[in-house]
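Posting this for the archive.
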Amino acid sequence: MLGTTSGASAGTAGTNEGPRGSGLVPAGVAVVIRSDAMEIWVNPKCSKCRSAVSMLDEAGAEYTVRRYLDDPPTAGELTAVLDRLGLEPWDIARTGEAVAKELGLGSWERTPASRTRWIAALAENPILIQRPIITADDGTTVVGRTEDAVRSVLPAD
């Protein structure tokens, strides 16, 4: 994962004291760190990805950039993201890509029984994954192809 972050929103919750190790929080006291951090899966060549990153920067959001073509998500990560999105793998597949045509994705069944096959194809060929995908720590996840979708994951002012 590439560690590009912007903004800052981490702090302690439920205490006015500093972080552990500062001498202000006694040993044995739990410190809860609040984080509104997000991760955005991008292809730097994609204008929608660049636009989403600009919007996150303008909002002062804290996020990590993952160049998913260089650091592809695993099948497990894709499954988790799909669950958070409430979508199926064929819903986020870029079926117009050359590799999609080579694989014959257009003729693949779109059924619960074929879900694993689709996820494996996306994991093995990340160019097939729709972009950008933004995941927030609060569970919100969107395919950020529109300004409204990107705004939906921004922290409230």
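Helices lie at 47-58, 75-85, 98-103, 115-124, 147-151. Residues 1-35 have pLDDT under 50 and may be disordered.
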